[in-house]
Amino acid sequence: MNKELVSDLAWGVGIVLLALGATYARKLGYIDGETVTRLVMGAIGLMVAWFGNRMPKRFVPEAWARRATRVGGWSLALSGLVYAGLWAFAPTRVAAAGGSLAVLLGIAVTIGYCLSLRGKTKVS
Hints:
The chain is mainly α and 124 residues long. Helix content is 85%, strand content 0%. It is built from four helices and no strands. The chain has helices at residues 3-27, 33-54, 63-89, 92-123. It starts with a helix and ends with a helix.
């Protein structure tokens, strides 16, 4: 099995185990429901940051594609960290709205940059 697939599966299994463990801790009375939500949502934000950070490290032979991958990696890594930070410290409503907005902005920056590169390649 390839190394990237193993790390991808590890993230998925890790988040599921975190959710199950946090739910069990809530049933035992150690934490409340909001803490469970914040833990799982924070982990998802860190996962987005992880994947965004990995993007530029992948091999892409064409210079334009490397640029797009680099911008996409930075925008998703930063938006994932904002998402995780909001779920760790902000009120739930702010975390839900702001975290979603951060990830959407990261995706929009990536798509916008790719479209701008596409326009430049047609002109060149």
